[in-house]
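note to self — DONT lose this again. spent like an hour looking for the file last time. sequence + predicted structure for the chain T wanted, 430 res
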Amino acid sequence: MAGETAAGRTGDVGSPASDDAAESALSLAAIRAQFPLLSRTIHGRPLVYLDNAATTQKPAAVLHAVDAYYRESNANVHRGLHFLSEAASAAYEGAREEVCRFLNARSAAEIVFTRGTTEAVNLVAQSWGRRHLGPGDAVLLSTFEHHSNLVPWQMICEECGAALRVIPLTGEGELDLEAVPRLLDGSVRLVAVAHVSNALGALLPVREVVALAHERNIPVLVDGAQAVPHLQVDVQDLGCDFYAFSGHTVDGPTGIGVLYGRGERLEAMPPWQGGGEMIRSVRFEGSTYAAPPHRFEAGTPNIGGAVGLAAALRFLGGLPHAAMARHEQGLLNQAARRLAAIPGVSLIGGTAPRIGALSFVLDGVHPHDLGTFLDQEGVAIRAGHHCAQPLLHSLGLTATARASVAVYNTAAEITALTEGVERARRFFAG
């Protein structure tokens, strides 16, 4: 798929890799040394952190950038004329430029800072949705959606009298792309789809969905929370109208995220929240609003978060991308191969390439129990429905265990995971 190569970057998704060669090319020990938390022990064992889809660890560059901002430049942005305010404003707008380059947007004015992917989707639902949705209209989602790209659309559709439609799964558990043209009838006003499934790690055919929607002049929002950490996302090439991601899954701080919106889309949208900064002028009789992106950033923003996010994107951008892709994919291949060899383990998902994460179940053991067992061995995974209950229900499941990787993970950590699952199998078998 053009515009989305593994880990950003280059390399064949799903191809086997030499773990030792990939780790050597990355100078993995040097990378890991930049993440202070990875040196912790948990329950007396070295931490094996495989919950990166929920949140990534933060490199020293991010920690230092946030600390330096609060120590040296802390002030409010845009409205002050003193030195600190000007320094803070420059750092904040510089972060916007960094995101613009990272996504290859046409202009920094297309980059809106939010609290995360969830707020970005809510912004589009409340601003674009209120203006364009009404009785008889529909929003089209995929079965793979995280609740953050589902519940906001349920809420606005209920309020506006619109309906939700869902792209189903194929019998192999993949997105039924052939059903999309049929579903994109005259009632659909917007398509909202995940780039990578947070629950299964499945790479969705987003570029094809965008092309089908645009043939009918239907805008597309893409939830990129699980894609941006692993893929080089080019929003111009992808062609989507909106793209959302969170800082905390891309080595950045929590509480900061991004909504990319094509300039003409943002210009036509009313503000969602009112307050300071998002206005041109205010009178008791009425107000006029600032141009995007400031129209959508009411109040004092998360300045330190934006500075930290910019540092995270610079950190990722400085890594050897082809080696990063091979390394991460090699870890997933190793995990899939070894888990599948354990009696009673089933990998969940179709044949679509896995990006960053894989889900599995162990016969007779609830994923919560498996997660608790592994935690006692220092291995951190995620267990549950992963905020994707409709997807799991469609697969006949209520929960899975999910292991998710980042560039700093190692082949030895995948071995610790799989050996831990084998010990759990024997333990729960009695």
